Fold these 3 entries.
Entry 1:
Amino acid sequence: MLAAFHLTIAIVLIGVLYVALKAIGGAYLRFRGARVITCPETEKPAGVKVDAKFAAFTAPFGKSRLRLNDCSRWPERRECGQECLKQIESAPEECLVRNILTRWYHEKMCVLCHKPLGEINWLEHKPALMNADRRSVEWREIRPEKLYDVLATHMPICWNCHIAETFRRECPELVVDRPWRNQTLEQEERNPSSRGGR
C-alpha cells in the first residue's frame, strides 16, 4: 500500500515537472532573439531583446512575464516604462528579426547568380545583402533598429556569391578574372564561321 502511494506521488511529481519544463522551454524559445519594435516614445524602429530566461522561469506560474534585456535606446533611456512589450506580447513572432528576414527573402533571387534563394537554413549558409556599391554584408552585421532601412536599400545575395564577393574585396591580389570565355562566345556570335569544325 505504501509502495503504491509513493508510486502515485512520483507519477504526479513527474507530470508536474514535465508540464513545468515544457512551459519553461516553450517560453524561452518563443521569446529569445533580436526583435524590431516601434518605440512608443519616438514612433521609430528600435532593436530590443527580451529577457528570455526571466520569461521562461515565470511561465509555469501562468502567463510569462516579460521584461527587456537590451534595447538600442539604452543606456540613455534605460529607465523607460517598456511599453513596447505590449507589441511583443501580442505578436512575438511578427517582430522577430529572423522572421522578418525570412519573409523578405521569400521568393527572391540572388542579384548576382539569379538563383532562387529558396528556404533559408539559419544554421548554415544564410543569404546576405548587397548594397548599391556592390559590397555584401551578412545580416548579423546589421543592427535591428536599422533593419527596415537596410532592406529598403539593399538587394538579396546568396551565400556562395557573398563568399566570392567578400574574397574578391578582401584579397583582390588572389583573384584572377578570366573573361576569355565570354569574349570567345561574343566572337562566335558575331562570326559564326570562326567556330571550330565548320
Note: The chain has two domains: 23-95, 97-175.
Entry 2:
Amino acid sequence: MARALTSCEPQAFERFVEHFRSKIFHYSLMMCGQPDDAEEVAQETLLKVFQNFDHLREPEHVRAWIFRIAKNACLMQRRKSVFAPEQELSVEELPPSSEITDSANLPEDELQRSEVRAVLHQVISELPPAYRCVVLLRDIEQLSTDEAAQILDLTAEAVKTRLHRARLAMRQKLDCYLRNRCIDIEPIASPAPLSEDAWQELHTAWRRGETCGCGAGAPDEIADKTILK
C-alpha cells in the first residue's frame, strides 16, 4: 500500500487513508478508551505520517512505522484527555510468566462468531496498558515480535513475556464468560465519517510531504470526499 502511494497509483491516497485510519482508530480506542480521543489520535497520526512520508525507507514496514507514530500520539492524548483514568491495574497484578504455557491460546472457536469481536474487545480493554498494547500489535494487527518490540521500545523477550501473561489473563476472563456470561458486552465504536476539512488537511499534508509529484493535483478533485470509515 505504501509502494502504491509512492508510485502515484490511482486512488492510492484514498485507499491508504481509509485502511489505516480505521486501524489507528481502533488501536487508539483500545488504548485511550474514548472515541473522541481515538478520532484525534487517528487524525494526528496520519498527519505526521504524510508530513514525514519521505522518511520512510522501507515501505514493507509501513505498518510498524505508522503504529509507532500512533503509540506516541496516543500517549500524548492520554496525558491531556479528560477521560484518562486516575488509576490503572498494575502489570504486577497479572499472573507471572512462569504460569504461562504454549497451550494458553484464546478459545475463539468456543464463542459464537457474532460475539467474538465484542467479547475480545472488552477483555483486551481491561488489560493493563503495558500488556494491552502488546496484544493489539501482536494478536490483532499481526505484527512480528521484533516489530512490536521496536514500536514499544522493548526487547523481544519482554514482548513475548507480556504477551504470554496477557493471553493467560484473557483466557481466564474468556473462560468466565463462557461459563457464566460474566462480561458485560458494550457496543464497539466505529470512526465517525471524515469531515471535508479533515480530509483536506490530510491531503494537503501529503502534497507537501511527498516527493514523487503525484500529490500536486488540484484540490477540487477530492473536495467531495467527505466520508471515510
Note: The chain is about 60% helix and 0% strand.
Entry 3:
Amino acid sequence: MSTTIRAIYRDSVFEPLETPRGLTEDQVIELEIRPLPPVTSNPRIMGGKPCITGTRMPIDWVMGYLEAGRSLDQFLSEYPQYTREEVTAAIRYAIEEMGYPELGLG
C-alpha cells in the first residue's frame, strides 16, 4: 500500500499541494510514500542489526527473549515503550521474511 502526494520543495521543506496554483509542472513533484516494514536495518543504529523500526531494539534479541520461554506480556511489561502491535508485527515479519522459527505465542 502506498500513497502519492503532489508537493513543492520550498525553503528546504516539501510542502504538499492540493492544487498547483500559479506553478509550472516542472516545479511540482509527486512523492510516493510507503510505510516502513516493521523491522529495518541502518548501519548507524546498533551496528546495522535489524531492529524494530524506529527503535534500537534488535529483533534477534526479541526473538531470543521469547525463545527462552518468556512471554510477550513479560516483554511488554519490561519494555513498556513498545506496543503489542509493533512487537507482534516485528515478530511476524522476522518469521515470514527473515527465516526465524515460528513461536507459540498463542
Note: The two ends are 28 Å apart (CA to CA).
